[in-house]
Amino acid sequence: MHTKTHLAIDIGASGGRHILGWLEDGKIQTEEVHRFPNGMKQMGEHLCWDIESLVNEMITGLKNCAKLGKIPTTVGIDTWGVDFVLLDSDGKIVGPTIAYRDSRTDGMDSEVSKFISEPELYSRVGIQKMIINTIYQLMSIKTQTPQYLEKAAHLLMMPDYLHYRLCGVMKNEYTIASTSALINAESKTWDDEIIERCGFPKEMFCEVVPPGTILGGLTDEIKEAVGFDCKVIMPPSHDTASAFLAVPTKSEDSVYISSGTWSLMGVELTKPITTESSRVANFTNEGGFDYRYRYLRNIAGLWLLQSVHKEIGNNIGYAELVKMAQASNCNCIFDVNDERFAAPESMVSVIRDACKEQCAESTCGSDVPENIDDFARCIFLSLAKSYAQTMEALQEQTETKFDSINIIGGGSQNAYLNQLTANACKLPVYAGPTEGTALGNIVSQMIASGVLADYKAARQAIRQSFDIKLFEPEMD
Fold first, then answer.
1. Do the domain assignments include residue 174?
2. Is the pLDDT of residue 1 over 50?
3. Would you name the residues annotated as active-site residues?
């Protein structure tokens, strides 16, 4: 097909895709070769990931490449953050692969605080406190099912495990490991002191390597299954790290939003900010490509809409739903980051309750949402307000006046939300590309393969290759 073709296996919490990418006449070309659903499943008492299903889908996508006669030169995998797999000394999974939204971490922040205070933890790792973080998941295992830690010889974050299944090499990629709240922000490797104080087995943490690390070829088993061999290259394995790499900005003073199930809003820095002020403002310093820190805040994102849609609007397409939201008169705004929205039995009920409370406090005079169009509108309005609040806090923490916002990912297709964001933040919004995560994955493989020189060349190639839409703020 082409001299060097690169395959991004991009797996999110709700679905995955295999996207081939190559450079042609200075432009990046892409082709989707496989798409599949993903989701948390109730297995016994816990919400879990079907890890073997993900492995099978990964192999199916590789087989599709062979069927199409489009065999990749390299392959890399990215996923959501914080979740992991424990393996025994034989490389077999120990215990269930429990998902981050499971309730097992309830109260685990108090347990961790017995060994290290929240201010000290933040000063060392710089990671936003979220009860889903790996450190709290590990503490839940230590306190609830310690036999799993006793058997564990290796800890691999989700994409690290999938890379292991492809090539047989166990490494921890830096950007995904940073989401654990166990990576020291300065040294960029495991913080042994925190690990020891929390009572986690230090020997199960593998070597931390940067994105772009070449792990090797496919295992004999995988080669036989898919009919070819290729190099396995670790991209920025945290999906947001790959997405940030794909932001096609020219400005150093632009804010990034990776918009999907989560909205990750922030900037790139060359040094972490681990001050007490930053901790209180709830910002995180996640690892990025070329050791550029992703200084950002995790915002609930389109998970809210996905949940409401599943509950009361499954027969309505998303494009139609956006049009309906624009026609709604509901102006309720709620705090999208309230913990009640993490995994409720009924998202409709908790949003309605939040709106009732908010309208009672503010006497906004708006009707509480009743129909799907009202819920969609108040979700979009609430997200836009959260973006504006986050931008103000970013400016305060970084002492920077920003000049634009770049939105990438699936949410960048929502023109209504893009315009609301431009209006709320009073800044121009550049929307696109849609497949930002997969693109970041692909260009990182291109950089590691010598096809592109560095991240600046990658962003220039993305600007030349994809349609970026501008949304100017509208006057009141």
1. yes
2. no
3. 239
